[in-house]
Amino acid sequence: MHAPWTRRTLLLAGVLLGALQTGACGRAPSTLQPRGPGAQRIATLWWFMFGVSAAVVLLVAALILFAVVRRTRRGGPSEEPRWAHGLIFGGGVLFPIIVLTVLWVWTLRDIAALSQPAGSGAITIDVIGHQWWWEVRYPQQGIVTANDIHVPVGQGVEVRLTTDDVLHSFWVPQLTGKTDMIAGRTNRMTIQADHPGVYRGQCAEFCGLQHAQMIFYVVAQTPADYQAWVAREAAPPTAPTDPTALAGRQVFENSPCAACHTIRGTSARGTLGPDLSDFGGRLSIGAGAVPNTRANLGGWVVDSQSIKPGNLMPPIQLDPAQLQYLIGYLESLR
Ligand code: CUA
Fold first, then answer.
1. Which residues contact 267 (CB under 8 A, 6 or more apart)?
2. Is 205 a pocket residue for ligand 1 (Cβ < 6 Å)?
3. 161 touches ligand 1 (CB under 6 Å)
4. How far is CA 308 from CA 133, 152, 157, 305, in A?
5. Does ligand 1 lie within 6 Å of residue 178's CB atom?
6. What's phi and psi for 141, nearest 5 deg?
7. Is the pLDDT of residue 37 over 50?
């Protein structure tokens, strides 16, 4: 028969192993898989702290073992050896002071390095938190988008952060640390990705029902790809040539969609929800709630509350043909 604690220990071990495995598979973004200089600094410090902590645990365990064995051999309490006081002073006072001072100085140095501005010529991106999505603006290029943040690799980008409602926190674990988004205040941070790829970001401050589904993606591109993206985004809007897409645009303009969303070059000028001018090129729907596919878009338009309960978008009633036109039009927007 197993004692209850044995079963509990086994369960805990299972949970820990599971957690380690999830981390190792790389599905969830990990600060220990850094892809930029900011995250690299944090990861290096983390490994150092982990190494020191592990060494201290092992040392203390060895000393306890030594004391137990020694006492058992002697068969009871014995005279304090002469070096006992030295050990207590050295191990309990001197050693922690040295280790903690090293960590403190290292941390201060990293905090200073991580808060360095990106430099005067850097690309600037404004990110504004909303319950529960991310407004993304490129003031230098006049681009407005949402939930996907395109950056060129190999250069520091200045991100200016604020919020339209409650507190949020901007965090891309593989690029750098978190920064809070505070109403009436603009916080700045520098992000840099060193390898092209898509890095998942996450709101890191509880902001209501859909905090966990307040996700975004940093799309790090080669400078040429990034320039091509900027050119596409900044180009004047063109009317769709495909008749079904044109019909879809009409559906959009005449439905409640237009009251909350903007699409450049149309009469839709709403500002409550995300700007949808480049919607077809986005990775997800509902700030990371579901991948951006035609089927998910249909479900979202008809009843977004079943996908992301509590979001501000009401169900939109359309007949099936209208819905198909609308989906085709939105997916054609790049
Ligand atoms: Cu926004 Cu949590």
1. 253, 258
2. yes
3. no
4. 11, 31, 31, 5
5. no
6. -105, -5
7. yes
Structure confidence at residue 334 as a pLDDT band (50, 70, 90): confident
Question: Which of 190, 49, 169 is closest to 112 using CA atoms?
Answer: 190
Instruction: Write the pLDDT tens digit of every residue in 249-297.
Output: 999 999 999 999 999 999 999 999 999 999 999 999 999 999 999 999 9
Separation between Cα atoms, residue 278 and residue 272, nearest integer Å: 17
Question: Of 146, 141, 89, 136, which is closest to residue 289 (Cα–Cα)?
Answer: 146
Give me the mean pLDDT over the 69-96 stretch.
83
Q: How far is CA 10 from CA 4, 5, 13, 16, 21, in A?
A: 10, 8, 5, 10, 16
| Greatest extent of the chain over all pairs of C-alpha atoms, in Å | 96
Q: Is 83 helix (H, G, I), strand (E, B) or coil?
A: coil
**Which contiguous run of DSSP H or E holds residue 80?**
none
Q: Are 61 and 52 a contacting pair, CB within 8 Å?
A: no
26 phi-psi bin (left φ>0, alpha ψ -120 to 50, beta other): left
Instruction: Write down the pLDDT at residue 80.
Output: 76
Length of the chain: 334
CA distance 136 to 130: 11
Better-predicted residue by pLDDT, 87 or 173: 173
Q: Please, are residues 215 and 200 in contact by the beta-carbon 8 Å criterion?
A: yes
Ligand 1, closest atom to CA 129? 1
pLDDT at 23 over 60: no
Q: Would you say the CB of residue 168 lies under 6 angstroms from ligand 1?
A: yes
